[in-house]
Amino acid sequence: FNKLAYQFAGIHSLVMKAKKWRPPPLNKKCKVCGDPAAPIQHYGAIVCYSCRAFFRRSVVNKKAFSSCFSDCSIVLGSKQKTCKKCRFDKCMQVGMRPESVGRIKFKVAEKSESSSEVSDGVEEKARCESSLTEIKKVPPVPDLDFTLEEEFRIYELLVRKENLMDGIFEISLQIPNFLGIWKEFLLSQCFGKLMTEDWRKCMINKNDTIICNLMTGGSLWQSLDMFSEFKYVDQSVKIETMGFSIIVLHIFNRALMMANSDRPFYVDQHKASGTFTKKFKEAFETIFPDNQYGIKSLQHLSWEKDDLFQVDPSHEDIFFFRTQEAIGGLVKDDIKMGALFCTLMLATPGATLSEASKNDQSLKTVQNEITLLLFRYLRDKLSNSDQASSLTNRLVMLIGDLHICRDIHGQRRQRRKKISLY
Fold it and tell me: For residues 388-410, b (16+ Cβ closer than 10 Å) or e, as one string?
């Protein structure tokens, strides 16, 4: 296994050095609803990200909308998108193509729009493939079957991830009246309220408490010490890297919850996301002892329902949500891939950290070994080496994007304070 890992040495660092994508300006109007849109063709037409998501969901889920009996119509600039049938019909009228949804190969936007207006598929492809020329030339890995030892190691990582999530949840339970605030928030979902002020403040308190716990050598280190992969990493490097990555883990879990919002119930949403741990289950059954399936899945996580984006939209918000859509769509309910990706995130220092952390050889060894294990798992799952290699490279590159999202996450907190959304 180690010999194979060295064949993959450098993959992680090469991908992390790839040029970062930056969101385009919202200087166009959506051809469906008139809202601000980027100069990008989504499935054949320039539309806003909200209409793009609506069209994609409609096609993927094979929605058959009933007739419109009120003779409504799409009104440009309207925040209400009227009935779904009229909205979908307008998408088709402006040139959006169902056959383009889910395609890998995309075309450049029509020259009549602008030379700078390219399809989101080309942009996404460039984002994932830039600076990866050398990676495609990595020496081929011997075609060996996925071993029981590798399978067992993934199960070990699943246990370690669950233990870490339990450690984080135990810190949440230390917040005064956490269970009461959590229950109030979940019950509010039944009445269509997407977020409560107390719950948002509780989440901020939780994140701050977790960072403090890590930096002061608190109880969370017992969970992190279970990751034997890091046993040779210098302690100061571990403290700095883990302190940085724990917020990235929060954003990753949020992305999984967003991707699994199609599950009908909150419990199923967490199970699919790999976050329904022992401590979480015990606490949830405490506040809902008789009906754990009475709470519907969370639906407030997308940018379409994000209160800050609706009031004060920014390019950073678009990047923040697009990155979560991308990683959530790739991992979704594959808890084994989630455990591997989680471990790789924890082992990847951010660009702003010290040179000691970024150049630590023991940490790089962990990165290379987990990257290889991820590739071999995907190859066994997909039965295709090229697809597995492409997906591995994309996942590694998304870690860099999640690091950017970590900074944006902090900026969003400050913006909320300025416009009094707390």
Answer: bbbbbbbbbbbbbbbbbbbebbe
Residues 6+ apart with CB under 8 A from 71: none
* pLDDT mean across residues, the chain: 79
Residue written as token pair 């399978």: 151
> What are the tens digits of pLDDT across the range 346-376?
999 998 999 999 999 999 999 999 999 999 9
Over the range 333-369, which residues count as b (16 or more CB within 10 Å of their CB) and which as e?
bbbbbbbbbbbbbbbbbbeebeeebbebebbbbbbbb
Q: Kindly state the average pLDDT of the residues 49-57.
A: 84
User: Cβ distance 250 to 367 under 8 Å?
Assistant: no
Q: What is the model's pLDDT at position 278?
A: 93
Sign of the Cα pseudo-torsion (124, 125, 131, 135, in order): positive
At 113, is the secondary structure helix, strand, or coil?
A: coil
Structure tokens at 309: 């984006």
Instruction: From residue 334, give the alpha-carbon distance in Å to each of 259, 340, 415, 422.
Output: 11, 10, 34, 34
- By three-state DSSP, how is residue 28 classified? strand
C-alpha distances in Å from residue 346, one per residue of 123, 142, 246, 267, 342? 28, 28, 7, 26, 6
Inform me whether the pLDDT recorded for 19 exceeds 50.
no
